[in-house]
Amino acid sequence: MDASLPDLPDDGTPGGRLGENIMHFARVLRRAGLPIGPGQVLQALHSVHAVGLDNRLDFYWTLHAVFVNRRDQREIFDQAFHIFWRNPDILGRMMSLMLPEMGAMQDNSPKGEEMSRRLAEALNPSNNKAKEQIEDEDIELDATLTWSANEVLAQKDFEKMSSEEIATAIRAIQQMRLPAMEVKTRRYRAALNGARIDMRRTLRAALRGGQGYIPLMKRDRRVRRPPLVILCDISGSMERYSRMLLHFLHAVTNDRDRVFTFLFGTRLTNVTRYLRYKDVDEALARCGDAVNDWSGGTRIGHSLHEFNQLWARRVLTQGAVVLMISDGLDRDEAAGLGGEMERLHKSCRRLIWLNPLLRFEGFQPKSIGIRAILPHVDEFRTIHNLDSMKDLVTALSFEAPRRLDGMRMFKDEAA
Predict the structure, then answer these.
(1) What range defines the domain where residue 280 resides?
(2) What is the band of 411 on the pLDDT scale with cuts at 50, 70, 90?
(3) What does pTM read for this prediction?
(4) Long-range contact set of residues 391-397: C-beta below 8 Å, sequence gap at least 24
């Protein structure tokens, strides 16, 4: 331990067992995916020394203030704290505690919640090494998203991935490239093998030439890429999927122009300029700082009303394609949601709804929000693993006909 460390309560050993336990707790959080370095460990030791150990709640929030810097890290920290410091009377007997045992902690998760896969592996790394020795087959991937024979990772739900699998999936997402969907416009351009004869250019060529014949000049319609607008739900029920989807949105934003991204929970936030940063960590950190309602409730109708009022005329130009990513669970009981969805649908070329709940067999649109959204979408897709992302990339690469009744479409496909 560094000589500049504060004099923490100990049992005679340098730095005390509390200092060792905080260091091991930081290692657990780092293995679970939190970006924690030696500087934060030292800061935690100094903070605990300043606050004291009189109250367990103060101890919790002291470590929380040091180790947690993004909203999506709260759940991992909360579970890790209650499992690692599992003894309710730990503050009164801190000096006599040995290092916490990492095994047999699976049943101590707070509030009866299922322990995060990332946290379980971080608490018991020895089991992970044994598992890796048994499983000799490596999962390999390339830019075209081809996988090993079992394709386990490509079909695995984001919610059930371990921290190592999440890192592998993120690398695969960063390699995704969105093919350019080109649509014809009303304007024309000169073309050697165009579909129509350009009479103006033909007459001009005849006047210039004077060879005794009239060369036929042709033209064809101009093509362009339509803008891509993403509306992503970041409420509590979508948190684990939003984290992975933000990596996908960052890859798409840096791969093509005219991509506009909005995050919504209880309010709407435009994060387009933050996702244009080349470094994905910096981009996501700035998004986290800009969004104030992460992992909260969902007000889809209110957020869409704000988008239609303030942003629709700016970004829904030239036949934009809209991706709406949400589970459709609305805190306001779909107040005004149907009208806002109808307006959004009429303002864009194509509206695709991505809902992770669609992954369940026998899914039925029973909630009020889902029933209000479905009639106004052109496509209804799931988005819960790498395979579903790959299917989405394929779907966005070509022009598809619009559907006038999304509810009827869903019933026909379910039948």
Answers:
(1) 228-414
(2) low
(3) 0.62
(4) 392/323, 392/352, 392/354, 393/176, 393/177, 393/178, 393/179, 395/352, 396/178, 396/179, 396/181, 396/228, 396/321, 396/352, 397/178, 397/179, 397/180, 397/181
